[in-house]
Specification:
Blueprint lengths: L18 E6 L2 E6 L4 H7 L25 E2 L18 E3 L3 H15 L16 H8 L18 E2 L2 E2 L13 E3 L9 H10 L4 E4 L6 E4 L15 H5 L5 E3 H6 L4 E6 L8 E7 L2 E7 L12 H5 L14 E2 L8 E2 L2 H19 L4 E5 L5 H15 L4 E3 L6 H10 L17 E5 L3 H4 L1 H12 L3 E5 L8 E2 L2 E2 L1 E3 L6 H14 L5 H7 L2 H11 L6 H8 L3 H13 L3 E5 L1 H4 L4 H14 L9 E4 L6 H6 L6 E2 L3 E2 L3 H11 L11 H10 L4 E5 L3 H4 L3 H10 L2 E6 L11 E4 L8 E4 L4 E5 L11 H11 L9 H11 L8 H7 L1 E3 L43 E6 L24 E4 L1 H6 L7 E6 L3 E8 L7 E5 L27 E7 L5 H13 L10
């Protein structure tokens, strides 16, 4: 293996369909109109020297190294900023050009350290490469004059020198090596959209400055890594490269964090990761990344990672390390014993949205074919199960309609209950780039998120009260219908007209007007009407939504309402439009696709269907139970009742992530065998009897399916530190339970998935290796996948309009609990924090904080940073307050990344009417000053410490 080298064409690709032909160094070249001469030359196989140019950002023309000669024109224009024209004759090498380039390079080198042998970029330095490319052999200018290289000059302190900034945990900034090419500044602006960097000073005093001459850590930098990737010298360098050295081979794989599904090159030395570099050919991220995927992979080597199987008879006992065989035998005996004592349906399992499609498929197969029941569920239950229900009812499929490239054709984006800047930052950067080009943005969220206002972007913000999504979306539909903004031609052609008429009559009722609903929603009617008009008339309208839509008692209703809105305006079935759920974890979509729900086999086909079941029974050689099994909440209730006593949990921390923590504790405590299969002793493991160590995404082969239905390869870059990949662990557990599953590689599992799942029928590892990725459905009709769904018609036939009556949640505010709590994520942390808390990302978010409006804080005597007691009908916890006007009066907000906060001890058992997705986003609470952690937190912490004891290994005789 060797390093995967990507061609840098110098300037971005032109999208023009008009072609232009010119001659470069005697060779005729045809390229799209708008292409730079630099890029055209690279297409022809001629690399023009460059330093300020890179194809991730627009041309800048500052380094003057890429000059060329054009016949019939005077001077030597920069090839990066000069567009091609028909008939041009270009020369990239001549005596004059050689002299000019050498002179330019001499000036750069005259103010640059010559410590190349000990430099962190040695072997990967474009300045070094370009010095060789132009034939630089001598520098006529010394360091006698002013310079930025030495701390002292002529015995005096050198005011132009700046010390290295090592404040960021992942990379360093060495100003002495900066050539002021502005690539980092432009990457921060054009690719990331944060505008955290600038060039301060002029002339010789110019330098890159984070913010107003702040440190990188203290600035607005979000550590996405775009600047580090763009830097042509060692000015910005990963600390891991400085410590380990340059990588010697690389493997393309897929990030294991959010549902964007970024493609990375894992650059390695042996089996050690040196760095993760975003892959330009990755179709989800197009060469960009965020702080988590780019830098926060160190958890794979964390000291708290468990590498040996462990068992214990009681949760009060310390853990005992055992061999894999003993762990499997112990687990199987426990589970079989429970079934013998309580019946076949007394055990079940939960699949993971962090594991691969293949691993998830095996877990549900183990439960259905090995356990003999359908008691399988997934963490998608507690996030996007309403998406599956709502989009299936209206469109006929349980997934988003577009690919991420579609945003480049969007004219109006509506974000509902999502904060992409924190939860899906790479997609947010792509969206913000489109917004800076002139597209409009509507944000419907109780909180003023980072998307509402960012550099050169200001959204129409509808700050609704939590729990009123249906009322707001129906009010938008009211405006569209009553003002004649419906796309009637689309509706008549693509949808059921009689159902539309019924729906239109419903939303047109006066009680659904913005003015009538304002008392419920808190949204200004004028702003809402403006938003409806912008979405309906602004061109291509795309809706993106998140857990702020689904995690409600009316989550499915809101998804249906969103689908109604898109159909009514004709915003379905072409690039730039659509209904797009932003999935929270890397394989939420895949875990649903693989049959992780108790009523559905892979491909969303109901377990009760005889023909479907016959297919699986024939291939699996086992009789399947036709009755749907238990959902996660039903499992907990049955455990407390004493009828569900054994649970296998793969890669999911249900104790921290599921609502009403005390109820979950009671359920887990009642079970006789809980098997946790994970990287760390998570919170659920406090109540487990078997711990099976898991493998990270770097240690296994498989596939993930991201939020745009894109199936991508996960490739093993190192041996599993625990000795077994997760798919191998599940196979071994199945064998101990009496179920033989014979696979030698995950590719064989995917072949079985393709044979049984119509939407995956054309998927294979060979195809994924050839195309890079495919989006399902991938079958005979769409052999290379389906980037945009519902072109020309809906999967279900006619689009279905459904009446969406607003029904207020049973969770109400009152004198005891007058505030509404809603929850969300922060950029640096991920989900329950099991991975990111074990990285340097804690420097940005060391604890969960409670955001509270100044008015609410003042009336309760709360100051910024104070400990406060957060109490609901379900329970209470304490955390520190952050006073901010990002939330409205009457609303408080917190994250759920840290187990010592246990935010879900506050949330209730209320859930979505159709799917049981918990209502995390609406909890009535009261806030009061506190002296520190609550009694419950102290007792929980004590139990956790006690439960995590590991008995010392017995000495060998």
């Amino acid at each position: 293996m060797s390093l995967i080298e990507e061609i840098d064409y110098g300037t971005p690709r032109s999208k023009s369909e008009t072609m232009v032909t010119l001659t470069i160094d005697g060779k005729e070249v045809t390229v799209p109109e708008g292409t730079s001469i630099m890029r055209a030359a690279m297409d022809a196989g001629h690399q023009i020297p460059k330093l300020c140019a890179t194809d991730m950002v627009d041309a800048f023309g500052s380094c003057r190294l890429c000059v060329v000669e054009i016949e019939g024109r005077a001077g030597t224009p920069a090839s990066c900023t000069t567009p091609v024209m028909n008939g041009l004759v270009v020369h990239t090498q001549s005596e004059r050009l050689k002299k000019l380039r050498k002179g330019v390079m001499e000036l750069y080198i005259s103010d640059h350290p010559l410590d190349c042998l000990t430099c962190g970029a040695n072997g990967d330095c474009e300045l070094q490469d370009m010095a060789g490319a132009v034939g630089l052999r001598d520098v006529r200018y010394g360091y006698e004059g002013e310079n930025h290289v030495f701390a002292k000059s002529h015995g005096e302190i050198n005011a132009a020198w700046m010390p290295k900034d090592e404040s960021n945990p992942y990379f360093t900034y060495d100003p002495s090596k900066c050539i002021v090419c502005s690539r980092c500044v432009r990457a921060c602006e054009e690719v990331q959209g944060t505008f955290a960097l600038t060039i301060s000073g002029r002339g010789f005093d110019s330098r890159v400055s984070p913010g107003m001459s702040e440190s990188f850590l203290g600035s607005e930098c979000v550590s996405c890594g775009a600047c580090v990737q763009a830097c042509p010298t060692a000015t910005l360098t990963e600390k891991s490269v400085i410590e380990i050295g340059q990588p010697e081979h690389s493997v393309v794989t897929t990030c294991a964090y959010c549902g964007v599904g970024c493609t990375f090159k894992a650059e390695m030395r042996g089996e050690e990761v040196v760095r993760m570099v975003p892959y330009k050919d990755g179709k989800a991220n197009r060469g960009h990344s965020c702080v988590k995927g780019r830098f926060a992979w160190g958890y794979t080597n964390h000291k708290e990672r468990i590498l040996n199987p462990m068992i214990r008879e009681r949760i009060e006992d310390p853990w005992r390390e055992v061999s894999w065989d003993e762990a499997f035998s112990f687990a199987a005996a426990k589970m079989r014993g429970i079934q013998k004592k309580y019946g076949r349906d007394a055990i079940g399992g939960i699949t993971s949205s962090r594991c691969t499609n293949e691993e998830t498929y095996l877990v549900q197969k183990l439960i259905r074919a090995g356990f003999g029941n359908n008691n399988v569920d997934t963490c998608a239950r507690v996030c996007h199960s309403p998406t599956g229900y709502g989009l299936s009812v209206t469109f006929g499929t349980s997934a988003g309609t577009q690919d991420f490239d579609s945003v480049e054709d969007t004219d109006v984006a509506m974000i509902i209950g999502a904060n992409p800047a924190s939860a899906h930052p790479v997609f947010a950067s792509r969206l913000k780039k489109r917004l800076r080009q002139g597209a409009k943005l509507i944000v419907i969220d109780p909180r003023r998120t980072e998307m509402v206002e960012s550099p050169h972007v200001k959204a129409l913000h509808l700050p609704l009260m939590p729990g009123t999504n249906v009322a707001v979306v129906t009010a938008l539909a009211h405006v569209i219908v009553t003002e004649g903004l419906v796309n009637e031609a689309f509706v008549r052609e693509r949808c059921d007209w009689s159902e539309f008429e019924e729906w239109a009559a419903f939303v047109a009722q006066p009680k659904h007007s913005p003015e009538a609903t304002a008392i419920l929603t808190g949204v200004d009617p004028k702003t809402l009407r403006e938003a409806a008009r912008v979405y309906a008339t602004g061109g291509n309208g795309a809706i993106y939504y998140g857990l702020g839509v689904t995690e409600h008692s009316q989550g499915s209703t809101t998804v249906i309402a969103i689908a109604n809105l898109a159909m009514a305006t004709g915003n379905i079935g072409r690039p730039g439009v659509g209904v797009n759920p932003l999935r929270g974890q890397n394989n939420v979509q895949g875990s649903c696709d693989m049959g992780s729900f108790p009523h559905e086999l892979p491909g969303y086909r109901h377990i009760s269907g005889d023909a479907v079941r016959d297919q699986f029974e024939a291939l699996w050689n086992v009789k399947l139970n036709p009755e749907p099994g238990l959902r996660i909440p039903n499992m907990f209730d049955a455990a407390i009742e004493g009828t569900f006593m054994g649970l296998y949990v793969q890669g999911e921390d249900i104790l921290q992530s599921d609502p009403n923590t005390k109820h979950v504790v009671a359920a887990l405590s009642a079970m006789e065998c809980v098997i946790v299969h994970d990287l760390f002793l998570n919170e659920t493991a406090n109540y487990a009897h078997v711990f099976l160590p898991g493998s990270s995404f770097l240690e296994k082969d498989g596939t993930f399916t991201n939020a745009e239905r894109r199936i991508q390869r996960v490739r093993k870059v190192m041996s599993p530190k625990n000795g077994m990949a997760d798919w191998e662990v599940t196979i071994a557990l199945a064998k101990a339970m009496g179920l033989e599953m014979n696979y030698s590689h995950p590719s064989e599992i995917m072949d079985e998935i393709a044979a049984l799942t119509p939407t995956f029928a054309g998927v294979s590892y060979a195809k994924l290796d050839e195309l890079g990725s495919v989006q399902w459905p991938c079958n005979e009709k769409a052999p290379e996948g389906t980037p945009v769904m519902h072109i020309g018609g809906f999967v279900r036939g006619k689009g279905k309009f459904v009446v969406t009556e607003y029904v207020a949640t049973d969770e109400r505010t009152g004198p005891r609990f007058p505030l509404l709590l809603t929850t969300g994520r922060i950029l640096s942390q991920y989900n329950v924090g099991a991975q990111t808390r074990r990285t340097e990302n804690v420097v940005w978010h060391a604890e969960d904080r409670l955001e509270i409006h100044p008015h609410d804080a003042e009336t309760r005597g709360v100051r910024d940073g104070d400990w406060v007691r957060l109490q609901s009908r379900a329970g209470e916890t304490t955390l520190r307050a952050e006073i901010t006007d990002r939330v409205s009066p009457g609303v408080v907000y917190t994250t759920f990344h840290h187990p010592d906060t246990q935010a879900n001890v506050i949330t209730t058992d209320y859930s979505d009417w159709a799917t049981n997705c918990p209502e995390y986003k609406v909890t009535a609470v009261q806030i009061s000053p506190s002296n520190g952690p609550s009694d419950w937190q102290k007792s929980y912490d004590e139990q956790a410490r006690h439960s995590r004891r590991i008995a010392p290994a017995e000495a060998a005789e």
